[in-house]
C-alpha cells in the first residue's frame, strides 16, 4: 500500500466557529493508482489534499487522524524529514503553481533549484534531468532558456507539472492543476499526464471540477459530500452503477459525450453549513430516496470488494 488515510479530521477555527471541512475521511491509494476526487465546491477537497501532505496553512488545522505513506505517518514527520520527502517522494501541483514561477529566473534555473535543493546531482546531470522532464511534459528543450513571461499559460503549467515530476515521485497530488486554462489545453495536458503516469507507474490523486474528465481518466473515483467521503470505487463501476444517491445526482448533472440527447439536471438544494453540527446522513435534505433511518448517520462501508459507500439504502 502506498498511502493510507485513516480517520482524517481537519478544518478551520475562527471567531468561536469551527468549520469541519474534512470529517473522518479514510481511504487507501495503491501503487500505480489514479484516484479522482469529485464533489461540489466547498465540500472539502482542497482541505483534504493539503492536510494529507501536511501543507494546510493557518487558520487551517488538522484535528486528528493518520496519513501513512509507505508505512510512516506523514503527520508525525518533522519539518526536515518532510522537506526531504517533498518533491522526491511526493509532490503537489496546484491551480496557481504556474503563478509561483519566479519571473526573473529562466525555467531551467527554477527546475534546477528544486533538483539542487533535494539532491547532490552535478550541474550537467541536473541539466539532463531538466531536458528529460520538459520533454516528458511536451516542452522542447530550447524552451528551458525562456523566462516565464515568454511562455503561454498552458506551457507555464506544464513547467510546474515538470517540476513536480522531476524526481519521479511515487505520488503526485493535483489540486485543479489545469483549471485556469482553456478546456482544450486542459484536456490535452491531463491526457499527457495520464500517459506519463501509465508509463512510469506512479500514483496520482486528482481533484478537478471537470467531472467528465475525471470519469474519463481516473482508475478509481471518490465522491465527497459536506466534508465526508460518501462513495469510492473503480471509476467504470461507479459511473455505470453509482451506489450513493449523491453520486447518481452528480453523474446526471453533466452532459454525456456518448448520449447528447439525454437530459441532464442539477441536484436541488445546497451543501449544509460545515460549521454546524450535522445529524444523520449529511445528504438527507436533498435526497429523493430519504427514509426515516436517514436521521441516523450511515457508516462508510465496503459493500462489494473495492466499493465503499455511506448510505443506508445504496442504489
Ligand atoms: N481559510 C479558511 N477559513 C475558513 N474556512 C475555510 C477556509 N478555507 C476553506 N474554508 C471552508 O472549508 C470548507 C471546505 O473548503 P475547500 O476549499 O476544502 O473545498 P473544495 O471542495 O476544495 O472547494 P472548491 O471546489 O471550491 O475548491 C468550505 O466550507 C470553505 O468555506
UniProtKB/TrEMBL annotation:
Residue ranges of domain ABC transporter in the record:
3-251
For molecular function, the Gene Ontology terms on record are: ATP binding; ATP hydrolysis activity
NCBIfam families tied to this protein: oligo_HPY
Sorted alphabetically, which PANTHER family does this protein's record hold? MALTOSE ABC TRANSPORTER, ATP-BINDING PROTEIN, OLIGOPEPTIDE/DIPEPTIDE ABC TRANSPORTER, ATPASE SUBUNIT
Q: Which first-to-last residue range defines the signal peptide?
A: none
Q: What is this protein called?
A: Oligopeptide/dipeptide ABC transporter, ATPase subunit
Q: Which SMART domains match?
A: AAA (SM00382)
The alphabetized list of GO BP terms reads: peptide transport
Check the record and name the Pfam families matching this protein: ABC_tran, oligo_HPY
